[in-house]
Design a protein that fits this description.
2 domains, twelve-stranded antiparallel beta sheet, alpha+beta, 16 strands, Lipocalin, about 40% strand, about 325 residues, about 25% helix
């Protein structure tokens, strides 16, 4: 090959002593830098959400309209710890504020655990199960688990942070999640998303990219068909003129109530190895009950443990037995 015609990337590999078939070494994990990147997501943001169907995978399927929305959102650190025998763990809570009215909505939550040994996975309709993470997958990696507004489970993903190019980026493995709220309120032609997530810390904020495949799954976890791929891009930009004081006041008033709710979810997973929600797909009975409890706490009322128990007894159950086909596949 004429050296002047050689592709630049190949010249760089050869200069570095890397040849075709060689394995490019992966830099060692840097959990301290990873932690800084995760904590960099805290703060006040103007957020744009964009979702576009890209590749159509079924004959006759028509591309859905692009979806665009925006919000004002603050991200607060709920937990930043883990030493010794405890895994490193960071919990971030998102809070929405209506710019005009000041109304606050508790939004999604993201938990990050370094070298987690297990995570929950969405396995079937309204069902999540705890599963072990392979040692070679979790070594040097962070598992991010995302939760609903009621702290119900949504999805987890595991991956390593990449700092090689001066920009911190985390990319997950592909995992399953239920339909997002933006979809299940308007369609029922698929029941699961197969997703790869990417978080990148950028000047002035951070971004969340999603590579989604819209899928029909059977109860045993097998794929019946895929209908379309979708690109998601959530852009978190610092700044704007939103007054976030109502969000901090709400969180100060209610955070101990939400500690109790999170403890109930953790207990359900620990007891049963997973959960099944006995609600419609929107989960609104649990959302409404917990939000009403939180509103009462803001008003200065007490919410008893028996009231939280009634919510969980009514709407949260142990997952059903694993279907034979799925058990055999494992």
């Amino acid at each position: 090959m004429n050296r002047h015609a050689m592709p630049l990337f190949l010249m760089m590999f050869l200069a570095a002593g890397v040849h075709a078939g060689d394995t490019v070494p992966v830099p060692p994990a840097d959990p301290t830098a990873d932690r800084r990147a995760i904590l960099a997501m805290q703060g006040e943001y103007a957020v744009d959400f964009a979702f576009d169907e890209t590749v159509l995978l079924q004959p006759g399927y028509e591309r859905a309209s692009a979806m665009r929305s925006a919000a004002s959102e603050t991200v607060v650190v709920v937990e930043d710890g883990g030493t010794g025998s405890r895994p490193m763990r960071i919990v971030l809570q998102h809070l929405l504020v209506d710019r005009r009215s000041g109304h606050v909505t508790k939004h999604w939550r993201q938990d990050w655990t370094y070298e987690a040994s297990e995570r929950f996975e969405f396995t079937a309709h309204q069902t999540w199960r705890m599963v072990p993470i392979a040692a070679d997958t979790t070594r040097g990696a962070w598992t991010q688990c995302v939760y609903e507004v009621s702290d119900a489970p949504r999805y987890c993903g595991t991956g390593r942070w990449n700092h090689r190019y001066g920009v911190a980026t985390w990319t997950s493995d592909r995992t399953w999640r239920p339909l997002p709220r933006r979809e299940y309120t308007r369609r029922d032609d698929y029941n699961a998303l197969n997703v790869e997530n990417r978080h990148t810390i950028v000047p002035g904020g951070w971004t969340h990219e999603q590579d989604n495949t819209k899928t029909v799954r059977a109860d045993d976890g097998s794929t019946v068909r895929t209908i379309a791929r979708e690109s998601g891009f959530n852009d978190y930009r610092r700044g704007g003129d939103t007054d976030f004081a109502p969000a901090y006041a709400y969180w100060d008033a209610t955070k101990m109530y939400w500690v109790r709710v999170r403890a109930r979810w953790q207990r359900a997973f620990a007891t049963h190895g997973g959960v099944q929600l006995m609600t419609p797909v929107d989960g609104m009975p649990i959302v409404m009950a917990t939000f009403q409890h939180a509103d009462r706490v803001v008003a200065g009322e007490e919410v008893g443990e028996d009231e939280i128990t009634r919510v969980f007894d009514s709407w949260v159950a142990a997952p059903p037995a694993v279907p034979v086909a799925a058990a055999a596949a494992r």
